[in-house]
Design goal:
Elements: H1 5-9, H2 17-25, E1 32-45, E2 48-61, E3 67-73, E4 79-87, E5 93-100, E6 105-114, E7 117-125, E8 130-139, E9 142-150, E10 155-163, E11 169-175, E12 181-189, E13 195-202, E14 207-215, E15 221-227, E16 233-241, E17 247-258, E18 261-276
Length: about 290
């Protein structure tokens, strides 16, 4: 789904949608003090595949498992930007401030809560000018409406959430300011309650894709396969884990017919190294 402006301003600073979605389905476990995500650019030269570190993001957690900062680094570990997070007494994220390597404020993001539910998210630029605001509406403590506005109060988009009888998200419908549908996402679940598949309709492009989630015998998410509207596989995303059960590698492949055969072509890769409270070393061994 679309994000508000601060996330656009700091495009590489927080987890990419690619990675964030996977942590949603495979949450971090154990007593993690920090982890670093390294993203690689992929290129082929004379038939040989090369990967080159293109960016790094380091995430730091407090003793309660709350992320207190994330820093975007160059491949040589020089700081580009840092986001510092603040929480209230009950653990709600109430503020994020992004600063440059020189300590200058880039943007500020504040959240307001009522009865434990986020009801407002406001984003400000480096001068403190309101750039965007989102207002959240709930029904029986379930988010049903997310309305996003620009700094002048004009509607940017509206997102409507629907749920099944078990309180799980069944569909997310995103609308343009004129009320026309922009995107629709439908969720299906396994008998155990895990995500089984996700269908996405892009109304503007007139395209439909579906993602099928595949799990190992231990219930760990191992692969997400993407199909086009003709039920043809167009992408495979593979996940590997470290010895403590956290994602340590995500590889994305485009699938296409080339040279008379089906080719899986590596197009994206991220690796994750963790520092655990009970170990100073990163756990890099895949299961």
């Amino acid at each position: 789904m679309k994000k508000l402006l601060a996330f656009v301003f700091a495009a590489g600073l927080s987890l990419s949608l690619f990675a964030a979605d996977f942590f949603k389905y495979a949450p971090i476990t154990g007593n993690v003090k920090s982890y670093t995500e390294t993203t690689f650019s992929i290129a082929t030269r004379f038939g040989t595949l090369y990967r080159t570190p293109s960016s790094k993001i380091q995430h730091v957690f407090d003793s309660n498992g709350k992320e207190i900062s994330s820093s975007e680094l160059t491949p040589k570990d020089a700081v580009i930007n840092t986001i510092v997070a603040k929480y209230d007494s009950v653990g709600n994220l109430v503020e994020q401030v992004c600063t440059s390597a020189d300590g200058e404020i880039v943007w500020k993001n504040t959240n307001t809560f009522k009865n434990g539910l986020k009801v407002d998210n406001s984003e400000y630029d480096r001068k403190g000018t309101l750039r965007a605001r989102a207002i959240y509406t709930y029904d029986n403590n379930l988010l049903v409406d997310e309305s996003s506005y620009d700094g002048d109060g004009a509607l940017i988009w509206k997102t409507i959430y629907k749920y099944d009888e078990n309180g799980r998200t069944s569909s997310v419908n995103e609308y343009n300011p004129d009320g026309s549908l922009s995107e629709k996402i439908v969720y299906n679940y396994t008998e155990s309650g895990a995500i089984d598949s996700v269908s996405q309709i892009d109304a503007f492009a007139g395209k439909e894709t579906s993602l099928v989630f595949r799990y190992g015998t231990n219930g760990t998410l191992n692969e997400i396969t993407t199909y086009d509207s003709n039920k043809q596989v167009i992408k495979r995303t593979l996940l590997k884990y470290d010895a403590k059960g956290n994602i340590n590698k995500i590889s994305e492949y485009d699938v296409a017919e080339k040279f008379g055969t089906t080719v899986n072509e590596l197009v994206a890769m991220s690796e994750y190294s963790y520092e655990y409270a009970d170990s100073a070393a990163s756990n890099a061994d895949a299961k």
